[in-house]
Amino acid sequence: MLNILAQLECLKPLVSKTTLNQWVEIITAMLAMSGRVTMLGISRWAGKGGSYRTVQRFFQTTLPWARIFWVFFCHHLFCREDVYLLAGDEVVVTKAGKETYGVERFFAGLYGKPVSGLSFFGLSLVSVEKRKAFPIKIKQIIKEKSTKKTKVENGAKSKLCKGNTEKKRVGRPKGSKTKNKATVELKKELLMLKGIINELRQMIDNYLPLTYLLLDGHFGNNYATVMSQQVNLQLISKLRHDSALYFPYQNPHPQRYCRQKYGEKLDIAHLDKTYLKQSSISDKWQTQVYQMQLLHREFAQPLNVVIILKTHLVTGERGHVILFSTDLNLSDEKLIDYYSLRFQIEFNFRDAKQFWGLEDFMNISQTAVTNAANLSFFMVNLSHLLLEKHPQLFVNSSIIDLKAFFRGYKYVEETMKILTEKPEPILLTQIFTRICSLGRVHPIPATSSNS
User: Does residue 124 belong to any structural domain of this protein?
Assistant: First the structure.
């Protein structure tokens, strides 16, 4: 069987020998097991040394997960010639009950409404060459307890509002001054993101310098651009489709001082062909890519904007997407390519939920919840390594093939223990190949070795 302990040798300076042995049993069980990935489920599939009490001890052990992710990535997944981007996003997992640490109501895009559960913010290093994302840091989001006002306070407030009949004046208050958009006060969400990015960069900057930060359209605002500048990263994100963008004002008299900053407003329906970078036609749809430097009234700096406009040649139906970057020199091809790579972090979330127990764990204490969530994402990296390191077993394979192989190996291994005589090597190889192929999407190549 594939030696899991050999893949974790690099983590010996970070965890004790006992914890490492427990970890090997837990990982082997998670790779082979079916059903929900809980502590009880893991103990049922673990071999000798993987009892339920042992699994509990592991989940109650405080582990340096940030260092574990980074050391494992450097030893097994890092490629010096590759370009890496930093992508971040939030993932919400549903949890019932009220005792789990951090359980609250969070908005889940998958359900389209707030749900009771836990929320984690994940950072992943995205490989431009491999087109994959590798989880590197996970942070649980804890909501502050809101103090509910009493009925007496609410009644007093309503009476005060009724007594104040003076109407609020429309427009800018008298005496107010223009605020500097480059020095805005960051919200709690961005302060948390800034903190975990700084922690990560302190650990990896000397080894892997980063340039770009990929975030979804939720962070397509001035606050996120200011935060990215504070951590010395160039932001790549998406604007609202109806964003009001302006060309910089071209002073017709350069010798005369002019305070005007914003010029003509951008009209998506009538884009100037001089800004057209790419154009292609596929299946009656015409795709046009425009790039220009524009201003937004809510942003403190000019933006490198790429507009992807799609038009149906028969019906005339149109749609567009507005991407932007704070790097004014980034080409349109790279900006589109880098932003499309942001979606790789969603595959990390999917794999952690579907295969590695992020949606299943039933731990309730802070340490156990942290270990369960980080273990799920660590298994995402380990699965990438196993699929990449053993192409003779996993040609164009997925995690379904990986788990089917380990499950079949587990069945054969347990069966061999009760046999008085082992079969001939050729027959044994055929047995392993046949059983380990059950449930796989891609069968094991006939020339592969099971040693």
Answer: yes
Strand intervals (E) in 217-275: 234-239, 245-248, 262-265
301 and 424 part of one domain: no
Helices marked H in 33-64? 39-45, 52-59
Question: 118-138: string of b/e by CB count within 10 Å (b at 16+)?
Answer: bbbbbbbbbbeeeebbbbbbb
Q: For residue 281, what are its two tokens?
A: 């036609």
Task: Give which of 22, 93, 82 is closest to 58, Cα–Cα.
Answer: 22
Radius of gyration, CA atoms only, the chain: 27
Mean pLDDT of 126-155: 81
Number of structural domains (the chain) is 3
Q: Are residues 72 and 209 in the same domain?
A: yes
> Same domain, yes or no, for 38 and 126?
yes
Q: pLDDT tens, 326-377?
A: 999 999 999 999 999 999 999 999 999 999 999 999 999 999 999 999 999 9
Structural domain including 424 reads: 400-451
Q: How far apart are CA 124 and CA 84, in angstroms?
A: 10
Report CA-CA distances (Å) from 203 to 68, 211, 230. Answer: 12, 15, 17
Structure tokens at 240: 């609202």
